[in-house]
Amino acid sequence: MSAVADTHAQAHHHGPASGITRWLFTTNHKDIGTMYLVFSFTMFLLGGTMAMVIRAELFQPGLQIVQPEFFNQMTTMHGLIMVFGAVMPAFVGLANWMLPLMIGAPDMALPRMNNWSFWLLPCAFLILVSTLFMSGGAPNFGWTFYAPLSTTYGPPSTTFFIFAVHIMGISSIMGAINVIATILNLRAPGMTLMKMPLFVWTWLITAFLLIAVMPVLAGVVTMMLMDINFGTSFFDASGGGDPVLFQHVFWFFGHPEVYIMILPAFGAVSHIIPAFSRKRLFGYASMVYAVGAIALLSFIVWAHHMFTVGVPIAGQLFFMYATMLIAVPTGVKVFNWVATMFRGSLTFEAPMLFAVAFVILFTIGGFSGLMLAIAPADFQYHDTYFVVAHFHYVLVPGAIFGIFASAYFWLPKWTGHMYDETLAKTHFWLSFIGMNLAFFPMHFLGLAGMPRRIPDYALQFADFNMVSSIGAFMFGATQLLFLAIVIKCVRGGEKAAAKPWEGAEGLEWTVPSPAPYHTFATPPEVK
Amino acid sequence: MFSQLFSVFLTYVYTQNCYIREQAFTLRWPVRANTASSEGLDAKSDKNKTLWRHSMMRVHAKRAGVLLSGLMLPALSHADWGMNMVPGVTGTSNEIFSLHMTILWICVAIGVVVFGVMFWSIIAHRKSDDREPAHFHENTAVEILWTIIPFVILVAMAIPATATLVDMYDTSESDIDIKVTGYQWKWKYDYINDDFGYFSNLATSQDEIYNRLEKNENYLLEVDNPLVIPVGKKVRLLLTANDVIHSWWVPEFGVKKDAIPGFINETWTRVDEPGIYRGQCTELCGTYHGFMPVVVKAVPQEEYDSWLAEQKAAAEKERELTQKDWTMDELMERGEKVYATACAACHQADGSGAPPAFPALKGSAIATGDMAGHLDIVVNGKPGTAMQAFGEQLNEADLAAVITYERNAWGNNTGDMVTPKEVFDYKNQQ
C-alpha cells in the first residue's frame, strides 16, 4: 500500500487533462462522480417531462393530449428512465465522489473499469430513448414488462429495450464490483468495518444486492429475447411456457432493486441528521444491523408483488409474514433518526430540511407499504393508484429527497462554494408542497378504485386527479430551480471552509474545499 | 399527524372548489334559477343575490363540517370525494375493509407517536434557542423495546389477516361456476353448467371519450352485456385469459384475481344485495387497458332463472343459424357488424390497418387470396402476433359473415362467399 503511494507521489502533481478527453478518458473518481451526477440529472429531467405528459393527460377525464398507445409508452419510459437512469446513477455518482473521501482512499480501486461503467450508461440510454422514434413506438408494457405483453405482444423495439437493459446491467455490476473492491481494500489504516461511515456501509450492502440481482434481470430479459427472436417458449403458455415464471424471476430482481434505490439514501441521511442535530447518531451498530437485515429480507419477499396472481395459500402466507417483518428493521432506522434529533441542537439548512422530510414522508410510504403487506387487503389495493402513491412516497421523498439532501450537504465540498441557501430552501418548500399535492391524493384515488396505468378514468376520480396534476406540475417546474442553484454554486458564491457544517464528521471534511483533484495520496490515520 | 394536516388542507381546497363551482353556476345561469317566474330584471338580480348568499352559507357550513371531520377522521371516507375504500357488499369485502381500517389506525397511532417526538425536537430543541446538544447514544433496553413492540403489533395484525385469507381461498361448495376469460380488451363470461356464454364490451361511445359528447355518470364503467349472478349464492369464478394477463376486479365484492393465459385461477363471491356493481381490468393489458370495465348485475333468484332460460334459448337459436341457408347480402350485412366489434379496433373500419403491428386487409394477400388461408388465420389466429384465434370467440355464422365481408368490402371484390356450414366443417376437420 505505502509503496504504491510513494511511487505515485512522483507523478501526481498533474491536474485534469483539458478538453473533452478529460471526460472521455478520465479515471478520476471525482470526474466520474460528476459525470454520473450530471447524467442522472439529465435523465431526471427527461423522465420528469414524461411524467408531465402523463399528468397532463390525466388532468381531466377523456382523451385530450395523447393517445392510449403513446400514454403507455410514457408510463413505461418514465419508470425505466427514473429507476435506471436517474436514481441508480445518482447514487453511483455520490459513491464515486464520496466513498474514497470517506474512507481515506486515493481513488476507486478499479479506475479504468470505473470509466467504462460510466460510459456504458449514455450508450444504453441512447438505445432506450431511440425506441421512441422507431416504427411501432417505444416499449409500452410498463416498467415491469410482464410477459406475454412484452414478448408475444410487444412492439418491435422490445429487442432494443432488452439490449439497453443488458448494457445498464453490465454497467451496474461493474460499478458494484468497484465499490466492494474499494471499500474492502482501500480503507485508511485503523478504519475497521464497524468504524466505517454509514454511507459506506449502506453502499457496501447495496453493491452486494446489485451483484446478486442484476444478473437475474439479465437472465429474465435474455429469456424474453429468446422468446421473441429464437422461438423458445419460456413465457408463452401455448408453447408450454409459464407467464407467471416471468413475474417470479422479475420480482426476485425487482424487490431487492427497490432497496438498491433506498439504502444509500439511508446512509446519507444518517450523516446529515447528526450533523445538523450536532449530536452523535443514536445507534450506529443497530443501524448497520438493520440495513443488513433489510437486505437479507429483501430476497424473500418478492411474491408480495404477486398476491393476486394465484399463489397457493401457503406461499401467500409466507410472503405476507416475511414482508411484514421488514417493518421491524425499517422501524429501527426511523426510531434511530428521531432519537438522534431528540434533545439535539437543531438547525435547518437545506440538507437538513430534505433529510427531515425524507424521514417523515418515507415513513408514510412505509406505512402504506405495511398496509400493502396485508395480503387480503392487498387484493383491494393491488394495481391501483394506492400502489402508485406508495412507491412514489418511498421513491420521491425517499430516494430523490435523499439525493437532494446529499447534494446540498456535499456541494460545498465539490465546488468550494456555498450554495444559495434562500434559493435552496425555496427549492425544498416548493418540492415538498408539490410532491405531497401530487402523490397524497393518489392514496384516495386508489382506495376509491382507480386502477393504475390508465389514460382515462371514470368521473368520480376527476377532482383528485386534477389536484394531483397541479402538484406534479409544481414539483416538476421546481426542479429547474435546482439546476439554477447548482450552476450558480459552481460558478461562484461564498467560499466554503474545509468543514462548512458545524456538526459534520468524517474524513471528507479534512480535505480542503473544493476537494483537490487528487486526495489522500498518503492515507490518513483513523483512530 | 402529517396526513391529518394534509387531509384538512385537501378538504379545504375541496370546499373552496365547491364554492367556485357553485358560484360559477350562479354566474353562468343567472336566469335559469327563476325561469318560471315573471319577475322583472331587478327582482331577478335580487333573487340571484339571495341564491348566491344561500349557496355561500351552504358552502361555509360544509367547509366547517368538512374541516371538523377532516381533523377528527383523517383519510376517512368522504362521500363526494371517495377518499376511502368501500366496505362493499360481500362478507369478504367487509372483512377486508375492517382489516384495512385497523391497520390504517395502527399506522396513524404509530405516526402520531413517532412524528410527535420528532416535531417536539424540531420545535423545542433548536440551536437558535442556545440549546446545548445532549450526548446520549445507544441504549440497549430502548433498542430492544423498539424492536419487540413493532413485532408484537405485527403478530397481532397477522392473525386476523390470515383468517380472512383462508376464507378467501375457500372456493369449495359453490352453487354456480362461471368461467371468466380476459381478451384484449373485453371479458367473456361462460356459464359452463348451462352451455352458453357471451362477451362483455365497453359501452361508452368514442364521442364521450374524445370529449365530443358530455360524459354520462357511468363513463368507462358501462358494458353492453354485464355478468349476471343471483344474490345469496356462492358463485365460483374460474379465470383465464386468451392473450395477455388481465385482472378481474370488482371493488365492492373484494374480489380481484389475475386472468392468465394458460392458467385457470379460482375465486368466489357471494353477493347479498341486488344491484349493479362496477369495476375494471387492473393489470396492464395493452393499448386499451383502461377501456375494459367489469360490470356485474346481481339479481334475485327468480329473475336470474328467467334470464338464464332466455339466454339458453338464444344460444340454441344461434346454433340453428349455422344450419340456415345464407345469401351473400345477409352475410355482408352481418359481417359488417361483426367486423366493427371484433376486427376494426386493430384493422380499422376501412380495412387500412395500422402497419406494421396490424396489417391492412384492404387488398391484402390473405383477404383476396386463397379461401383456406383466410379461414385459417381468422379461426386459428397467428401465433406470435396480436392476431387472435377467433374460432373460439365467434360462432360459425359470424365467422362466415366476417370472412365474406372482408373478401368483398373496400374494393376486395373477390365475389367469394363462405357459408356457416362450411366454417363448421372447416373447424371440425381440424
Automatic annotation (TrEMBL), chain A:
Gene Ontology molecular function: any one: metal ion binding
GO cellular component, one term: plasma membrane
Enzyme's top EC category: translocase
Coiled-coil regions listed: none
Pathway(s) this gene product operates in, as recorded in its UniProt entry: Energy metabolism; oxidative phosphorylation
GO biological process, one term: electron transport coupled proton transport
Superkingdom in the source lineage: Bacteria
Alphabetical keyword list: Cell membrane, Copper, Electron transport, Heme, Iron, Membrane, Metal-binding, Respiratory chain, Translocase, Transmembrane, Transmembrane helix, Transport
Main location (coarse class): membrane
Annotated EC: 7.1.1.9
Gene3D superfamilies in the record: Cytochrome c oxidase-like, subunit I domain
Catalytic function, reaction form: 4 Fe(II)-[cytochrome c] + O2 + 8 H(+)(in) = 4 Fe(III)-[cytochrome c] + 2 H2O + 4 H(+)(out)
Pfam families given in the database record: COX1
CDD domains cross-referenced by the UniProt entry: Cyt_c_Oxidase_I (cd01663)
PROSITE patterns referenced in this protein's UniProt entry, alphabetically: COX1, COX1_CUB
Topological type in the membrane: Multi-pass membrane protein
Residues annotated as domain Cytochrome oxidase subunit I profile: 23-527
TM region positions: 36-56, 76-97, 118-138, 158-186, 198-225, 245-269, 281-303, 309-332, 353-375, 387-411, 423-446, 466-487
Entry similarity comment: Belongs to the heme-copper respiratory oxidase family.
Function: Cytochrome c oxidase is the component of the respiratory chain that catalyzes the reduction of oxygen to water. Subunits 1-3 form the functional core of the enzyme complex. CO I is the catalytic subunit of the enzyme. Electrons originating in cytochrome c are transferred via the copper A center of subunit 2 and heme A of subunit 1 to the bimetallic center formed by heme A3 and copper B.
Name the UniProt record assigns to this protein: Cytochrome c oxidase subunit 1
Organism of derivation: Marinobacter profundi
